[in-house]
Specification:
The protein is of the alpha+beta class and 153 residues long. 31% of the residues lie in helices and 29% in strands. The protein has an 8-stranded antiparallel β-sheet with strand order 2-3-4-5-1-6-7-8. Helix 2 crosses helix 4. The longest helix has 18 residues.
Amino acid sequence: MKWQQLRNSIYYLDGTLRDIYVQGTTKDDWLIWADFVNQNYKVSFNPVGTNLVEGKIDVNKAFENCFNSDEGECSIATVFLDDILVQIYFFSADEIENDITPVEINSIEDHNKLVNYMLGVSRALKKKVILTPDSQPENELISVYLDEVIVNV
């Protein structure tokens, strides 16, 4: 696959984010996901209501803080795929949602880093992982399940 084709079809620069979803999850899946990223990537975790930035994602603290927040705010985390920042929001136990900005995907190597992250998450959870346009989970740009990768260009 050629980089320019990926830029035009997947990582187009229209000012919007891309979402990474794992649907049909449980809190146990979140715990598995956190173990996977904590062991394999540099991460930062900012529990809501604090000025702390921690180097390990604590799912229990994330959900406790999110659901007990008077303002409806949730903790956020970042997974660093080198220069690609994957932002994580702890909105709901039944869906893992990550955001990336296509501005940070600038080569086939960057694309491969993102796909490898998605593969790792899929293998850890034994669930399908998809990349979509912002807030469009029905429009799969990339789907990954265990070792299978489908890129819709």
